[in-house]
Amino acid sequence: MAETAVGSVINYLTLLLTEEANLLRSLHSEVLGIKLELESIQCFLKDADKKAESEENTSHGVKLWVKQLREVSFRIEDVVDEYIFYLAQHPRRQSGLIDSVNKILRCVVKLKPRHRIASQIRNLKIEVSEISERSTRYGFDVIGERSATTPTDVSWYDPRKAAVYLEEAEVVGIESQKAKLSGWLLDDQQSQRTVISVVGMGGLGKTTLAKQVYDSVKDNFDCHARIAVSQSYQEDLLKNIIKKFCKGREGAEREEPIPEGIEAMDEEAFTHTLREYLCQKRYAVIFDDVWNENFWGDIEHALLDHENGARIVITSRNMEVADFCKISAFVYNHEMQHLPPEKAREFFCKRAFKLEQGKCPTEFLKLSDKIIDKCHGVPLAIVATAGLLSTKSKTVDVWTKLHVSLSSELENNPHLKSITRILSLSYSDLPHHLKSCFMYFGMYPEDCSIRCSRII
Fold it and tell me: An example of a Gene Ontology BP annotation on this entry (predicted)?
């Protein structure tokens, strides 16, 4: 009887071992399959993120579909991580008599987590399949193809454009920076072609500073131009430089004629034409908002160095852009700073209390300081927030409510939507694997100190 019972147990355990081995092989294959699915989803999401940067009016249906796909990708990552952790906790061991007995006992414990992982993978595959079917059913894939091939006019107001039209009296806190850059531009001791990089996060006033300096020194050069570059500069960049050079200086008797056939020229012809035009001329060019570190390689051969004091100013959020120029040019680096508290207050009051000649009423002093602190010395944030407040009733209750809800106002108020879009460009420029890392910080309360040991 006992022998029969033991034999029955052995048969059961043998069956269990066989099932465990089959499940392990099947599970490994399932994990590999879902991992490949994850890689495909991540590639799609990268394209979706890029598309979202250029298409403001993406339909709500497409946004919801992409959101569902992104959430599934996060759950797939979790399952793959759980499987990797499981393998680390249960390494394969050498087989022996005792090991075989232990293996039989362990398999009972290990089958449950393996079944759970396998079940999760099956459910995720079903969910991915359903999301894919929805994309076909509602034409989301067709929308994606159309968007990829059809240029879309993006209609949104860029508050940086206002920096071009700011009067000098309206600008606060850049006097010393302006003097520094002007000195570099007009330095007669430096005859070599020189690149001046103005680097800093979005909203610190790079465009404003560059424009103010440009206006004050441009007449010291034989020809000059100011070009907005942005993230995806077009092939007509060199053409724009030539046209702006030919317009001549303000007050000049006449403009120079634009070279014939310029509209039909290719890049090589543009480069040759520009080199001929700049021969023996001292020029100054400002390239505003450069993102790509390879930008210098695209223009350096067109902008010759005749050792007559030519100057090129590049504004960028990316220090690597400036470093790339050092290959073939002398480079000055200027890093933008946040406005100090007293300058931030002066700037805020100029914008929020225009009717009061920039003087903050006594009852608003403490509240204004709290709002200014939220802006962290970023001029663009100060301009947008002060502009919003200037449209509100000047009562302490109204301003207090806005101060408390400023974070939600950034998301929902049309007066602040453009600043959110500007600052989100830096997020969009992050490598894909760092975007999720950055978003994890959203779990922490505002203004919370975060210990490295908690997140690393």
Answer: defense response
Where would I find the H helices in 326-377? 341-352, 365-375
Q: What is the number of other CB atoms lying within 10 angstroms of the CB of residue 163?
A: 21
For 314-368, write each residue's pLDDT tens digit.
Answer: 999 888 888 888 887 889 999 999 999 999 999 999 888 888 888 899 999 999 9
Give the CA distances from residue 276 to residues 79, 100, 173, 235, 236, in Å, rounded to whole numbers and listed in that order.
62, 83, 40, 19, 18
Question: How many degrees, rounded to 5, is the angle at CA 261 between CA 255 and CA 267?
Answer: 105
Phi and psi at 25, nearest 5°, equal -65, -45
Q: Who's near 202: CB < 8 A, 6+ residues apart?
A: 317, 380, 422, 423, 425, 426
> 1-44, pLDDT tens digit by residue?
444 444 444 454 455 445 555 555 666 777 777 777 777 777 77
Instruction: Report how far apart, in Å, the C-alpha atoms of 31 and of each of 69, 111, 309 are.
Output: 18, 16, 62
Tokens 């449950």 label which residue? Answer: 112
Q: Are 315 and 288 in contact (CB under 8 A)?
A: yes
Are residues 193 and 299 in contact, defined by beta-carbon separation less than 8 angstroms?
A: no
Specify the length of the chain in residues.
456
Map out the domains of the chain as residue ranges: 2-149, 161-335, 341-455
Q: Which of 180, 172, 240 is nearest to 213 (CA)?
A: 180
Write down the pTM of the prediction: 0.67
Torsion of CA 445, 446, 449, 455, to 10 degrees: 50
In the chain, how many H helices and how many E strands? Answer: 19, 5
| CATH 3.30.450.20 correct for 161-335 | no
